[in-house]
Amino acid sequence: MKKILSVLMALILLSILLPKHEVYAASFSDVPSTHGFYGEIMFLLENGVINSGTSFGVDQKVTREEVAVIVSRGIGLSGGKTTTPFKDVPASLASSGYIKSAVDAGVLSGYTDGTFRPKEIVNRGQMAIFLANAFKLTTESNSNFKDMSPSMSSYSSVKKIVEFKITTGFSDNTFRPTQTLTRGQISAFLARAMGYGSPTPEQPTQPNQTPVFGDISLGMTMDEVIGLSDGEFVSETNAILTFANVNVFGYLSDVVYEFEENKLVAINVYQYAFDNQNELAILETFFSVMYNELTDIYGKADTIDTDWYDDENSYQLSAYWVNSNHDTLLNVVVTMESDTFGGIRISILE
User: Fold this and answer.
1) pTM for the full model?
2) Containing domain of residue 270, as a range?
3) Which of 5, 20, 133, 269 has the highest CB neighbour count under 10 A?
């Protein structure tokens, strides 16, 4: 019975990816408008890459077969049933055409034993290879993740998709190439590769479209932040989430997320300090690390003050990013009050 149910679930999920002739309305029960990947999934739906259904299976692990289908459709490859060179992909398989098209286009390949292994789960490193191949990416980011090395097969591809803003690493400077992917995540990555969220001259990039810590972005809901934040959950109110021991660019910190109308509007990162110059130096270094990371996302700040502003027991460093209309988009401030703690605040300013 369990095997039958598993097969039925796989068929239902795959049917969402395979082409249909009917026109559907967006009706995924597991992808509400508040979901972190709602925009990307709706983008794929509107562009005919996926089809509507009762449920999308957004948290289901994604397989090689599903990746072959969705990426092939994303780049316009054909998918009619056909024979393939793989002994585990018969022509009768609904995805056989997409698998052959993806392999012929160099998006992904089979194994030396003559199999394709369509039900094998895909990880982040493999995803990077598939997308870099599919979209023929050539430029590599300067980012270096501590869990990636040149000897890894996905090393170059990871640097390419980071440069292309398809995804970013995590706040502890890792990429986690062996971490498995969900259908929601691969949909988000593919949508971004296809141009979802890309700025136009009339629409400059906004901070809530770009991750700040790992996959956390300003503008997210409480549930999304809870699901994405690392560290230890401490407390929750209707407007505040608090986490302890969060790894923020190599520094274990307390992080307080502030919300307005269930949208993340500010992130406060606290480093505890004492009454000595060495602790001020730590906070200054922390600010520099944060500034460099945000520069990779938003470019060079329009205004930056790297000299301590000393007002009795309060100290401050600051940086501001503004758009072409000189409206302040992002503010980062480091303060240390009463010689007891210091922190960085990231927020959108009106």
Assistant:
1) 0.54
2) 207-347
3) 269
